[in-house]
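Sat 14:20. Reprocessing the chain from the morning session after the first attempt stalled halfway. Input below, unchanged.
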Amino acid sequence: MAPVGGTAVQDLVALAEIELCGELIIAASAAQERLSLESIDEVLKVAEERDSSRR
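Finished this time. Tokens:
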């Protein structure tokens, strides 16, 4: 529920998680078979995160 003053507070972490879930749903619906763990990591850009954290 939004505060009475009309100011909505955005939770950036929650918004990012929702965006990632959407990307997974799109990838899963476009796939002919179940997504492999590697495919899921690619959609979620897990490898990119690991690479950037090593720098």
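The mean pLDDT is 82.
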